[in-house]
Structure to design on (99 residues):
């Protein structure tokens, strides 16, 4: 299995969608955004949340590619924002502390 940051780097979506997600991720608030998307009472750790978000995004992206009427651009964007926000938190928590 690929590591989480490699999976994020390999994620390619339409430019406008990716730019909107990057912009939205700047104001990402884990407690507010992730709670709404996942619906959990207690939030999982960033690694577990990322895995779940990847699965959700994969399903939504398939709907997009199939031009399915059930596809929601807003939902897709919400998931991508959370995915990028969680990735930044995950990476920050794994960064070595310099003294």
């Amino acid at each position: 299995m690929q590591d989480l940051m490699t999976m994020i780097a390999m994620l390619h979506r339409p430019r406008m969608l990716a730019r909107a997600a990057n912009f939205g991720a700047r104001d990402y608030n884990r407690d507010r955004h992730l709670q709404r998307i996942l619906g959990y009472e207690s939030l999982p750790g960033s690694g577990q949340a990322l895995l779940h978000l990847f699965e959700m995004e994969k399903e939504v992206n398939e709907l997009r590619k199939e031009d399915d009427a059930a596809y929601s651009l807003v939902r897709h964007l919400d998931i991508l924002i959370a995915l990028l926000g969680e990735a930044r938190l995950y990476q920050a928590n794994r960064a070595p502390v310099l003294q």
